[in-house]
Amino acid sequence: MSRGKRKKRGNLARAAAIKAAIKLFVKVCILAVNKQYTFYMSEKREIRKRLTATEWEVVKKFREENEGVIQAVNESGIDLKHVQDGWLKTPKHSLRFTNPLAESKQKEELDFDSVFREIEKKAKKLKLPSKPKKEENNFDRLVYTDTHIGMEPNKDGTAMYPTSWDKEDLHNTLNQMIRWVLKHRKSKVLYIDDLGDFMDGWNGYTTRGGHELPQNMSNQEAFDQGVLFKTNLLLMMCPFYEKVICNNVCNSNHGGDFDYVVNQAVKTAAEIMFENVQVNNITSIMDYYQEGDVIIPLMHGKDTKHSKRPMPAKLDAVNEEKIKNWLIEKDLISPGKVIEVSKGDTHQHIFDYATSQHFDYFCYPALSPSSEYVQTNYKKGKRGFVFHSYGECRELYPYTFND
């Protein structure tokens, strides 16, 4: 037999073997799906031979009656609900068990489809102006930050300043924002800038994983409310503006990747629902956009990973130099340009036009109420948002809630 024929026959044999292996794999998968084979240990299965009858009884107590868990935590002085799992050790065996009495911290899977169903039906009905306003300025701008969806500001009813921040409060806040924008709109173009920490946390922690957070929503519920909030805002804004541009800061210490997931869902929905909407999700620490002679750098003030200290509410020399160097690197400083650096994070409304010779430094108020931690260690604070309109001059229309 020639060398070429042997090679061809070998290739055919390998192909046949691969085909047979694939068929077998598919058959096993089908059997597994039909539950004809079981790949885990169930109560109905016979005792595995490597466990003695005595050991199996111990295992059953750990799994079904929790006697071993309760006894162990009592002896150790540990709260039972904080023990997620453990190991049962014998001279011959090692068995991992979970504690069904523990507080659940399992990761939730988000149902991305559910939130888009009947969005228009869920949109709040607002009393909108019937007469168009005179559109005379270059562009309008709505800025909000630190919405902290899912935060519980009064977990045990012991807060210094008891308040709520549930989905009803969230959407009442949205309605106030919409009315304020439509009352003061003065152009055909609207920028909506969200400066980060839109979501409060993931699985009850900051996305940094730094510390535990009191929550009043699950991950799924917070996701739903976040997408509805932003989608409803667009539903109300689009009929009154020829163009709407959303800039979402997704690099923040509380929201982080969860902010990105929500904003990316909104971006996907908006591109289908609206012809005049553009959504930009910002994952860098700092970015900017420019409209005419106005340059607007955006940041949260504390990122998802590296920042040890937040950018301060009141600009100091160190951070003035840091921002100036970034602007020089981007070649943004030039005569005749107006630069408004916009940040969130510190939950304070402080606009500084004087400290820097090269830019204005705007610190925006939080849209959410103060957390119980902030109430206790600092102050109650004031929440709000700011509407801008840019024409011959820069017009400001801040809104402060009275709660």
Describe what is shown at a glance.
The chain is 33% helix and 18% strand. The protein is an alpha/beta fold and 403 residues long. The longest helix is centred in the N-terminal third of the chain and has 31 residues, at 3-33.
Keywords:
single chain; 403 residues; alpha/beta; Purple Acid Phosphatase, chain A, domain 2; six-stranded mixed sheet; five-stranded mixed sheet; 9 helices; 18% strand
Q: Care to describe what's here?
A:
The chain has helices at residues 3-33, 53-65, 67-76, 119-122, 167-184, 219-237, 256-273, 317-329, 372-377, and strands at 85-89, 94-98, 139-144, 189-194, 243-249, 277-282, 287-291, 294-298, 338-343, 350-352, 360-363, 384-390, 394-400. With 403 residues, it is of the alpha/beta class. It has 2 domains: 19-104, no CATH class; 114-400, Purple Acid Phosphatase, chain A, domain 2, CATH 3.60.21. The strands form 3 sheets. A 6-stranded mixed sheet has the order 6-5-4-3-12-13, covered by helices on one side. A 5-stranded mixed sheet has the order 7-8-9-11-10, with no helix packed on it. A two-stranded antiparallel sheet has the order 1-2. It is globular and about 85 Å long.
